[in-house]
């Protein structure tokens, strides 16, 4: 039953992730889809039109390499290349296998074998580890380094693959672009420890992911900018932080390291954040630690009570009253979505 406190929002219906990308490319075209750091404080922006072009290039290259009806793994910190790899895989009717970036070499090897992968795309940070286990992975035909320069029959740089795909698209190769998606076919294998500690592959289809995306956006209105913090090899992080944002035309600012979370939040000035309770706990503690350090904890408590009193009267001055707190989040924060644990979160909503 529709809850009057939570109106259903209008959302374009999609049945698969290829429709997601095509719809966003047409609807938001030159709007910024992703922004991320490249060197120091310099950032790079990618439009929704460019996002589709990059996906088409990589997917076309995969097809030319014989990667059809194949399982392709991806591992690394949050990055634009990781995201393009995901879509280039699934929109070609291949199966993506996102691997936990904190796994040991042995566990990575076991996951690759168990999931029958024929290729793996990885950030350069994992280059040494991948080469150490390469000899134990006879089924892996291609090792693609997101930041590498090596190019031979087996180890290839991501840039080389993208360039190859771009050339093929320009030459008229459109098998990938015209590929039709079966929404019920297996498209992703997500490994989770479950209750026994032994990793199990959870099988998801295009329809699973598309339905979850549309359903979420019917109940939650997202805004202009999100900082992508949660690891995207998790389904919650990828669905909430990437799929929902693309479908809404939101700009996704990619955080690659927990060390730079605070800096990225201040600099990118997000309207929305997707978090798990642990992040919220740390942010909450940081606010109160700073208030105690500056001798303003009692003032903050009184201000919260005063703000709540005004809210009961229908007066909302929180953006003015708590401006110093909001400035620590870039000043534009509108929404925090928190999930992934069973903790009580009500105390974090008092500011």
Automatic annotation (TrEMBL):
Domain AMP-dependent synthetase/ligase stretches: 24-341
InterPro entries in alphabetical order: AMP-binding_CS, AMP-dep_synth/lig_dom, ANL_N_sf
SUPFAM superfamilies listed in its UniProt record: Acetyl-CoA synthetase-like
A Pfam short name: AMP-binding
Record-level Gene Ontology MF annotations: long-chain fatty acid-CoA ligase activity
GO annotations of cellular component type: membrane
Gene3D superfamilies per UniProt: N-terminal domain of ligase-like
Protein name: AMP-dependent synthetase/ligase domain-containing protein
